[in-house]
Amino acid sequence: MKIKKIVNLFFIVGYVGAGLTVLYFNSKLKSSLQKQLNINKSHVEELRQLQSKALLQSYEENLEGSKLTFESLRLFSENLLSIISSPKVKYGIVILFTHFDCASCVSRELRIWEEVWKKFSFQDSVKIFAIVETKQIQLESRGVISFPVFIDVKRSIFSKLTIPHGHPVVILWNRENERVIYCHLAEAGDENKSFIFQNKVLRFLNWID
């Protein structure tokens, strides 16, 4: 009888041990799979970010050299045309943004170019201005910036330049040949890119060394 009990106990212990072993390895397997899943998600996110940056860079490169004509500007703002029609004006620094754009990106670009405006507004050869799509955005910009803000109600400029939603755009525009010299799409969390573009423009204008 004792032997039978011992045998039964032996089998019970064996079953419990086997069950615990299975649970242990299942737990290890689940943990390993979760780690692999997290790694895969990380790779996917990195790939998505790289693809996004590549698309933005491609857009910037394609826009540089394209035309932004006086006629297209006349379509939505005679006031803007009067500002840049002076023979003294050679270049325009244009900031374009909508309510769809990254709010922190818009705030950063306005702050950066407001500083430039305050420092170099005496320069008659360059005009800084913003183009927005609604009156509300124009009103919200007051007190934040002191350079002019114009409304493109019909989105004629935004459509012509096929500006993607989500990213405010800054361009350096040549008044004489009506072409875009440089283009910049602001990115969330990438303040360095914005300052690099600012320095690129200021060097082109010979405003900094």
Give descriptors for this structure.
globular; 7 helices; 2 domains; 209 residues; 5-stranded mixed beta sheet; alpha/beta; 14% strand; single chain; Glutaredoxin
Structure description:
The protein has 209 residues and is an alpha/beta fold. The protein has seven helices and five strands. Helices cover 56% and strands 14% of the residues. It folds into two domains: 1-63; 66-204, Glutaredoxin (3-Layer(aba) Sandwich). It has a five-stranded mixed beta sheet with strand order 3-2-1-4-5, sandwiched between helices. The chain has helices at 2-63, 70-74, 78-84, 103-120, 135-141, 156-160, 191-204; strands at 91-96, 126-132, 149-151, 169-174, 179-185. The termini are far apart.
Can you lay out the helices and strands and say which pair or pack?
Layout: H1 2-63, H2 70-74, H3 78-84, E1 91-96, H4 103-120, E2 126-132, H5 135-141, E3 149-151, H6 156-160, E4 169-174, E5 179-185, H7 191-204
Helix pairs in contact: 4-7
Order of helices and strands: HHHEHEHEHEEH
β-strand amount: 5-15%
Distance between the termini: 99 Å
Number of domains: 2
Number of strands: 5
CATH arch. level architecture of the largest domain: 3-Layer(aba) Sandwich
At the first level of CATH, the class of the largest domain is Alpha Beta
**Helix amount:** 55-70%
CATH superfamily of the largest domain: Glutaredoxin
CATH topology heading of the largest domain: Glutaredoxin
Radius of gyration: 30 Å
> Structural class from helices and strands?
alpha/beta
Largest beta sheet: what is the strand line-up? 3-2-1-4-5
Question: Average pLDDT, to the nearest integer?
Answer: 76
Total count of helical runs of at least 4 residues:
7
The profile of the biggest β sheet is: 5 strands, mixed
